[in-house]
Amino acid sequence: MAEQPPAAGSDERRWYLVYTKPRQEEVAERNLLRQQYHIYLPRVMQVRRRRGRRVSRVEPLFPRYLFIDLDTRNDNWAPIRSTYGVSNLVRFAGQPAVVPRELVTGLQRRDDTQGIQRVPVEEFTPGGRVRIVEGPLMGYEGIYEAKSSRDRVTILLDIVGRRSRLSLDPVRLERA
To answer: Distance between CA atoms of 6 and 15, rounded to whole angstroms?
Structure first.
């Protein structure tokens, strides 16, 4: 077992990157925490479409990666690789890759009270060009007109030389 991490200001502490097995970030996190390692797994709320409905789900911000804060002198690194869910430490030229502390603290500052990163939904500007990225009209471009309700936006679409108004879920759009 690893020792309890010293104070965050210790000169010996560094953040490193753990590469996990596919979809095993939370398994690795749970097992590393059980071994008393200091872990940070940034999560984000993702909105996806499942069977025609919008579904919100919390997922890792960086799939297959999590951060581990290790003391280069006192922590036992040996158990990390054999921890359930962990594939390996990320290495460059055979050395564990050090992650800048500012990067991790910057990510941690963006966490909300539940530890989730809130990525702002892309706001479209009236008159701006948009592209449909999902559904039967995928690939078509139009002009963003307005937000029509809580979950819908209206765009103008030019189909065979005729402009038509179309109400869509904004998740189906991107800037063109």
So the answer is: 13
